[in-house]
Structures are given as C-alpha cells and as structure tokens.
Amino acid sequence: MYSDRSITDNEHSVVFINKNLYGNAEDIVTALAHELGHIFHPTKSRRDVFNGEAYATINNIKIINEINKTGCYKIGVTAGKKTAVLYSQAYDKMLKTGNILQALKTIGHVYKCYETTNMGISYAEYYHADTSDCKK
Q1: pLDDT tens digit sequence for 14-36
Q2: Which domain of life, per UniProt (predicted)?
Q3: Contact at 8 Å (CB) between 87 and 61?
Q4: Is 121 left (phi over 0), alpha (psi -120 to 50) or beta?
Q5: Which of 26, 32, 52, 63 is buried most deeply by CB count within 10 Å?
Q6: Could you say which residues of the chain have pLDDT below 50?
C-alpha cells in the first residue's frame, strides 16, 4: 500500500510505502525490507522505538545483502550515506561476534542522534527523545 511516507501498522501487519518511491523498484525494496523489520520485531512503546528502528535496519541490511549477492542489483540501506556506513559496520561486527544486543544499541543510538525523518527533522526530535548522549 502507498502512503505519504513509509510506515508500518503492526496491529494489522500492513506496510505502507512512500508513494514518492513508486516507479523505483530498488527504493521500494529497500523501504519494504526496513518496514518488514518492524513487523518482525514490533515495539511495545515509544520508549522502545530506537530498538525497533535498529531491528528494522538489521532486517534491511540482511535482505539487501542477499539481493546484492546475486549481482543483478545494487540496493542500499534505508539511511543517509554516513549513517548507512555506521549501520553496516555494526551489522558486520554483529555477524563476527554474534552480539546482536551491541548492534541494536549502536544502530539505535545512531538512528536517534543522526538520522532524519522524511519530514526533515531528527528522529530524536520526532520522538521527543533525550539527546544528552548525542554528539553534534
């Protein structure tokens, strides 16, 4: 389903994809891979939102890595260029160490402090999160 932004309705297990992505298969796949992570790991409260974003990002990376291995496509992570590198580093470290909790913590922190919504505001601002641990 298409919407003004990509979001997940966990109650009904429905993913809405940003209608501005229509016609760009790679961007739709990337958004869908991320949003499915929210379906697989729903958050219970706004307090858990960055943990949920971390799970969704891990799912996003896992799926795009599988697709990219085919050599047919080169699909990126749903993220800014700088944050995508940090997410991939945390994911790769998780694969090596098996420590998903550290990956969730790292990715969640980066998401909170440095990622912006499609409305142009930080996720920390959007969710009214404490940013005292975020470096400018």
Answers
A1: 999 999 999 999 999 999 999 99
A2: Bacteria
A3: yes
A4: beta
A5: 52
A6: none
Q: Quote the pTM value.
A: 0.89
Q: How far is it, in rounded angstroms, from Cα 34 to Cα 63?
A: 9
6/24 Cα distance (integer angstroms): 14
Pick the closest to residue 21 from 39, 6, 9 (CA basis).
Answer: 6
Two structure tokens written together for 62: 């896992």
Task: Give ∠ CA 121-130-9 in degrees, rounded to 5.
Answer: 60
Tokens for 110?
Answer: 């980066």
Q: Which amino acid is at 75?
A: I
Show the tokens assigned to 58: 């891990």
Q: What is the DSSP string of 20-32?
A: GGTT-HHHHHHHH
